[in-house]
Amino acid sequence: MIHERITELIHSGLDGELGKSERSELDLILQSSAEARDYMEELESLSDLLGQEDVLDLPDGLHREIVASVQLPAKTGFSFKDVPAFIRFALAAAAGLVMTVGVYESQLDGPGGAELGTDVNSMVGTIMHKERAEVEETLDMLTFDLEKISSTVRLQRTDGQLVLDILLDAKDPVDITAHLTSDGLLFDSVTQTQSELKSIELTDQAIQFKGQGRHHFAVLLHRNRDLADNLKASIDLRFTSNGELIKEGSLVTKEVF
Amino acid sequence: MSMDRDIALLNDCKRGDRKALDSLVRRYERPVYNAGYRMLGNPDEAADVTQTVFLKVFENIDQFNPNYKFFSWIYRITINESLTRLKRRNKTEPLAEDLESPLRSSEAIMESERISKEIQAVLLTIQEDHRAVIVLRHFSELSYREIGEILEISEKTVKSRLFSARKQLKERLQQNGILSA
């Protein structure tokens, strides 16, 4: 039976977690105890066995799926958040001053200025908008990555608003239909798009999209005021290409929003 | 993994830079996938975990404290997500059925592959919190301190779990003839 202290030294030694003095202590123990040496050898064999295990490669297409499914804020080349606070204030004050002087001079110089009738005294420091961070939460998601067509559809809450976000990358023509089943919610409008609006048909309970290539659009859902008690929603999605069904699935939110 | 590089990539991601997103995913997708696979023993579930982990990372990116290591945070999400799935699985289905069938036709499988499947099968028999320390130490090659940070336990507890886990693994692999007694 090996003493607990020796066991600890052996395990820690194997893991490279010993200090100099503990390492010397372990070396002395190993020189004098055959039992400790046997135990160390057994653990080394176990460690070698586990160490021989291959690092697995990622399944095909997973990287692309992950990158496609992650949403980032809209790209900005420059962020005021990176600038130290005192410089931000100085810039804001300078910009406010320039604008104030500009408006004041335009009032003096021309008829346009006089027509403005603006109270320039209150304008200094008012031109910077407070940055507003969007809060996004994915409620349900459908994603697939086939040879010629990949897509990620997310039902998400963005700043308290329910949104259906559709990302498509298709080498072949694709038809997407989305049917909403909900007593209290309706499709409202297309909010952001990298697609031509004419390729999207929208009714209160259905979206139809036809397209090819890379598309990204989002559809807002809103409360039907007359039937706002039940706010659960289920959206049935069908992807077809050249008349064949390639993917179908449902997105569901059970939460009251 | 360089902490500075991680933080720089995260900041670029916050500004909407999809190239930075691609780089960050590339840096961590394999470690996350492998840790998920070792915890769950199922490649499909490991792929699901990997995707969920990155979604959670970017949904909660503003909660990440840059004074801490990004890799500790992403590993913590990975282990927690795997444990959640294991709990769900324990309630609904038997353990790792897909690992058993290939072993039945072991003659047709190369020896190294058979051993690999045996190791994974034995790994799945040990207690989940013990399995987590084995995965992080032996497959992710992390130190006691890093494992402690990820699992939010003391180094002493890391050692204690690791010793018990190795004892169980060693005995079971010896019983199966994978490790000589």
At the first level of CATH, what is the class of the largest domain in chain A? Mainly Beta
Instruction: Quickly give the structural class of chain B.
Output: mainly alpha
As for the CATH topology of the largest domain in chain A, it is Immunoglobulin-like
Q: In whole angstroms, how far apart are the ends of chain A?
A: 62 Å
Q: Give the name of the CATH architecture of the largest domain in chain A.
A: Sandwich
Distance between the termini of chain B: 37 Å
CATH superfamily of the largest domain in chain B: RNA polymerase sigma factor, region 2, helix turn helix motif
What characterizes the major β-sheet of chain A?
Answer: 8 strands, antiparallel
Number of domains of chain B: 2
Please state roughly what percent of the residues of chain A sit in beta strands, choosing from under 5%, 5-15%, 15-25%, 25-35%, 35-45% or over 45%.
35-45%
Mean pLDDT of chain A: 76
Q: What is the typical, i.e. mean, pLDDT of chain B?
A: 87
The helicity of chain B comes to: over 70%
Helix/strand order of chain B:
HHHHHHHHH
Oligomer: heterodimer
Order of helices and strands of chain A: HHHHHHEEEEEEEE
Keywords:
heterodimer, A: 257 residues, alpha+beta, Immunoglobulin-like, 35% strand, elongated, B: 181 residues, mainly alpha, Rna Polymerase Sigma Factor, Chain: A, Arc Repressor Mutant, subunit A, 9 helices
Note down, in words, how this protein is organized.
The complex is a heterodimer of chains A (257) and B (181). Chain A has 257 residues and is α+β, with helices and mostly antiparallel strands. Chain A has 3 domains: 4-51, no CATH class; 80-122; 136-253, Immunoglobulin-like. Chain A is built from 6 helices and 8 strands. In chain A, helix 1 crosses helix 2, helix 1 runs parallel beside helix 3 (34-51) and helix 2 crosses helix 3. The longest helix of chain A is centred in the middle third of the chain and has 25 residues, at 85-109. The radius of gyration of chain A is 32 Å and the shape is elongated. With 181 residues, chain B is mainly alpha-helical. Chain B has 2 domains: 1-93, RNA polymerase sigma factor, region 2, helix turn helix motif (Rna Polymerase Sigma Factor, Chain: A), CATH 1.10.1740.10; 97-181, Winged helix-like DNA-binding domain superfamily/Winged helix DNA-binding domain (Arc Repressor Mutant, subunit A, Orthogonal Bundle), CATH 1.10.10.10. Chain B is built from 9 helices and no strands. The N and C termini of chain B lie far apart (37 Å). Chains A and B meet through helix 1, helix 3, helix 4 and strand 1 of A and helix 2, helix 3, helix 6, helix 7 and helix 9 of B.
